[in-house]
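Re-run requested by the PI after the first attempt was lost when the workstation crashed. Everything re-entered from the original request form. Ligand of interest: beta-D-glucopyranose.
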Amino acid sequence: MSNILHVLLCALITGAMTFAAAQQPVYLDPDASIESRVEDALQRMTLREKVAILHAQSKFSSPGVPRLGIPENWMSDGPHGIRAEVMWDEWYGANWTNDSCIAFPALTCLAATWNPDMALLYGRSIGEEARYRNKNVLLGPGVNIYRTPLNGRNFEYMGEDPCLASKIVVPYVKGVQQNGVAACVKHYALNNQEVARGHINVILSDRALYEIYLPAFKAAVQEGGAWAIMGAYNKYKGEFASHNQYLLNRILKHDWKFDGVVVSDWGATHNTEEAINNGLDMEFGSWTDGMNWSKSNAYDVYYLANPYLELLEQGKADIKTLDDKVRRVLRLIFRTTMSPSRPYGSFGSPEHGLAARTIAEQGIVLLKNNVPVKSTSAVLPVDVNKTKKILVVGENAVKRMTIGGGSSSLKAKYEISPLDGIKALAGSRVQITYVKGYESPAVKEQDVLGAKDPETKEIDIAGLRAEAVEQAAQADMVIFIGGLNKNDYQDCEGMDRTALSLPYEQDALIAALVKANPRTAVVIISGNAVAMPWVSQVPAIVEAWYSGSEAGNALARVLFGEVNPSGKLPFSFPVRLEDNSAHSPKGGEYPGNNVDVNYKDDIFVGYRWLEREKIKPLFAFGHGLSYTAFEYDLYARTYNGIDSKTPTVTLSMQEITKIEGEIMRLDIKVKNTGTTDGAEVVQLYISDKKSSLPRPVKELKDFDKVYVEAGKTAIATVSITADDLKYYDDKKGQWVLEAGDFEALVGSSSSDIRLTVKFAVK
Ligand code: BGC
């Protein structure tokens, strides 16, 4: 081709491209800002198209705007893995063959890592899985506060403390959203029990709302930048949480400036006008009026479907409110599916398996590890040189825990059971025998159409127990693996537990096992605290959570010392149910009277209650042992950027209020005094010595997990901001910083404080 021809051709092509670019609508322009794309798309949409994108079209999807090429939204549970595909209009599994995910540890386990880096890894990995599966909204994470150990869904949440939950939820959300997938933080708000969740009205003080139940949601929105939030089932101030003037319009959208979408929980919408006016943006899972139930057009009778359209057409609903909702849904789409920088994701990869294992390893908590009677060494880690025969007992050693528990149930690509993990790690060096010891009634595996309930059979618990005890006496050591199991009433959505005790006569079994063999380690798999009437007899106790695909590998590596445990409890274990705030005869209330539940325990939830009432917990919030030991020493104290050597610091109120970030930083030397490398979580609690309103004895405000080699020292850093010193004053309706004396308490758990730094605010 001659040069002239070439130049001419190029000019023609460039011209054509410029022309095409000029023709390209702004909403399709990847270089345009999200807001201009939203506005452009909005003004092109008809009234019908606008209403259509506000409600579901199937169990987990909502329509886009087909005429404009704006894609649908596809949602998935959440929060521990990407749920298997279900049928279009049914809860049953769709029997796809390409939807087996990596199951990540339950969020309780993530919280127990006390490690924001693990939360980022978690979010990024699960976000990649969601992206690969073409989901643009992940229905999770859950951050409802753990108020009672009976709550069937606590395993999907991040524990009892607002500071811990906030610091874990933020990186989770960021990690998910890096993939162009929205995190839908749930269940906003006050869904702290499953009993009567669909209608119970929660009564509580503004102070408890702001200090305990909202901070993790606020952090997810303001620091994590969450693009979606799910309204809860329950009521607050007499209005359903999914269309609640106070929670959604006032707090979330006005005060916190949330610009994402509010999605209803599935079936949590009850009224068109409230849904329109009280802050709901997208309606999912509604049961229709019964007459249309499951008919193909059932979605048209959703509260935000034809009934909304009719009000709009009659001029009884305003366009401004409609457009606000539509903008939010469009923003969601431009942030996710139509984002030009959206990566492609990956699914079921070895990297995700490794992420799941690492998180599980960091979350497993060593609760107790004593030297048994007539022994010279602690039970854990198992010494394979001195142990020839191990008896593994308990159904949870073999039970698949990624299945069950409600909407978070998963179809996992694989799941290593504890027994498999133990055999893989030590089977060639130690003889490993397994007996069940107890059994729970069988449940349905995957919920697919036509799957039958398993036949009920007689379980001879006494016989199973006798067999286990007999064998225990002949082994060098026993590893009991039991706990709860996500069956109905045993950590399951839709129903709370009915007691703090372990089910299936496990207490009797554990007591008999340890009597037969004092070298017995008890591993509890659960998402909740359980009673341990045998605690003083059993030398070693581990809380291993529901840990996902790699559960067995992670547990085995901790039990055999390949990994030094570093998890800390994200909630307190009470001795008795009555010791817990919600169940205390001194002011607790649970589950309410089926109409209202009054959170009379107010801000005194979890350790805040136990400490105020001077009740000794079974295991304290923040507790977790290691195979090594750590010594703490205050290294430096910095106030407002200046090193301070004086023993008592006085901070001036005027100055503090001017400072946005940290007002004081504490650097702590953490020395590993043992012979094993390990990680320690240094926890900072603040104690307000005197205040106008009653305050907890102390409250967690910061923490830092540091890895320290044996014999070495590392520096942990925790800091205090002005906000950490404030309380919420109901009467004033605002956060208050009061002058007075404070203590910064630095420790290894809420009941093991190692350093105290006094300071005053003048
Ligand atoms: C649960 C949500 C879940 C939704 C969809 C509801 O029952 O409360 O957490 O995301 O179902 O499965």
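Saved to the shared folder this time. The longest helix spans residues 3-23.
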